[in-house]
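Here is one chain, start to finish.
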Amino acid sequence: MQTVPVHHDNPLDRLFIWLFSRKMAKAIGTETPMSGYDGFVDLSKQIMQGRSADEQQAAVARVLQSLVPAPVLWLIRTLFSPTRLVCVLNAWFAAQMFEWLVGPCTVADAEVVGTEGEVRSQPSAVHIEKCRYLDESQCVGMCVNMCKLPTQAFFTEKFGIPLTMVPNFDDLSCDMIFGQVPPNPTDDEVMEQGCLQACPSANLSKSPCHKLNS
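Its structure:
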């Protein structure tokens, strides 16, 4: 029997959940009757309803940008290049700050391909043991359109720090690799991923997942 993870959100976790949920509700002009993390996931599902994949990603992008003032983003892009140290520090920060969202995670080594094709090994990856967001939703489309693609774009384009996210749909783990330029979505193999069996609206006869480009 599969063990269902139990998450014990501390006061800081609940604050982040409330803040993100409020920003998401404002972005789409709606509310949710649910509270806590359940409400956060419910709002994610509401964003997906009636919106194309591009529109879903745009909505999440607005939420992310609303959390960090534009002058701060400009300063980070201007003052910090994606050096090894900067990427390592971002991985450490993400592992500390995002556990409320994705569950237990640790900093790990990664082989990173630089902008000029050079390969270097550095501890700038975050290994997510079992993604809470994916585990709660059981939806490939939500993982890709509501998390992976907009988060990659936000860090890469707004912060100027490349990020590639590599979800594993077999064990629901994920690796966030800071310093790795993300592939073009049309070339990303994740776009060929079929629905998960536990997805409430799974189309198991169709691959890839029907929500990836809906």
